[in-house]
Amino acid sequence: MRLVEVNVRIGNLVASAETSYTVVNKLSPMTLFFESGLQAQSRTEFRLPLTVLEPLSTISPLSFTVLLRFDSTLLALRSVETAGTITQGGTLQLQRIDAGGCRISITDYIPVLPSGPLFQLVFSAAGTPVDTVTRVVILDAGMQQQCPVTLDARGTTVTLLACSQAYTIGSAETVVASPGGALRVPIRVAPALNAGEAFNAHFSVAYDSALVQFSGVEAARPYETGASLVATRIKGSLIVDVRGRPADSTDVLCWLLFRQNNLRESTTASLRLAALAVTTECAVDAASQDPVLLLDGYCERLLTRSASRPTVSAHPNPFNPSTTLEFSIPSDGDASLRIIDVAGREVALLHRGPIASGRYRLPFDARGLPSGSYRAVLTHAGSTAAHSIMFVK
To answer: How many domains does the chain have?
Structure first.
């Protein structure tokens, strides 16, 4: 309550009286809110602006603090951006309380815009196999500019849209072994796994125990702590379980180790893979491909040890619909044998991985491909040999 003296002058008349009035100290209302109904695709980054509804002064300093909470199993806060916002050019203070909470503040900053977003939160969304709703909550907020304000701060919900993936376990490549020799068979995954990507695969592998004997399993790449790799042998087959997050990007889940029995004649055999269950952060469609084993016999020898550089040829050529590729490997090591079309696109992968030195024969069936010219490309130890082949229907 304040007492004042009021003088009223009308022409030459002056009136004077003592009176009083009440000044109400009313706070200015201010509203902070996030955009509602936001949708974000799983496993992507998205931006969430925090907006001021009422206009601010662009000549008076602004100070504010906002305390946020979110589900860290679904959202990861990457950064806070000011570009194109009221605080553009300012230095925001970001204090991370824990994985799902933070405090954002600024002190005595002159706004560059009178209204709009204060700042933008940059989140990365986890993968979800179904559409999932999560909340970003404002636990507490305070703001001051020239005059005190009463603040209404509103959180929001974000819908993470489900992601889906398709994986193939195994590959139709050929692994070669000499009589009584060891086979190290890569179990590949396509597409390759990214570093830190959660991946669990449960698959079966059937093999002919009259031809090979299982001797063990090896991890292909280092995995993060808590990963597991188990192979259980059951009557001529294996149940393999791989769980974890690879520390590096990889296209090989594991290596299966076999030893070839001493065979009189050379033969080929397949490891029959079946993807029983594959789980990631997304919905998964899984398929499998069978690796091929080329087993040398001690009576009918497929390989000799006289090659000086990699070579490859095909018989018959031209062919319809299949031919036999003959190739030589000068030294033990990794090699690949591919078929490419005239545009350089790979249409078949016949072998990729370790191989002993020697000469080999592999069948190639072109059914399903258009007739025309192709090239068989053999790569080994930095050297490449190529041979043109013609498929004529």
So the answer is: 3
Residue with tokens 């109400």: 24
| pTM assigned to the model | 0.59
> Distance (Å, rounded) from C-alpha 18 to C-alpha 7?
9
Q: What's the rounded Cα separation, in Å, for the pair 99 and 274?
A: 39
What is the distance between the alpha carbons of residues 28 and 42, in angstroms, rounded to a whole number?
Answer: 40
User: What amino acid occupies position 64?
Assistant: F
Which position has the token pair 């393999």?
Answer: 240
Let me know whether 259 and 144 are in one domain: no
186 to 198, 202, 272, 332: CA distances (angstroms): 20, 16, 13, 17
Span 11-20, pLDDT tens digits = 554 545 555 5
* Confidence label for 307 from pLDDT (cuts 50, 70 and 90): very low
User: Which residues are CB-contacts of 388 (< 8 A; sequence separation ≥ 6)?
Assistant: 373, 374, 375
| Identity of residue 346 | E
Would you say residue 13 lies in a domain?
A: no
The Cα 31–Cα 387 span in angstroms is 72
- What is d(CA 25, CA 100) in angstroms, rounded to the nearest whole number? 38
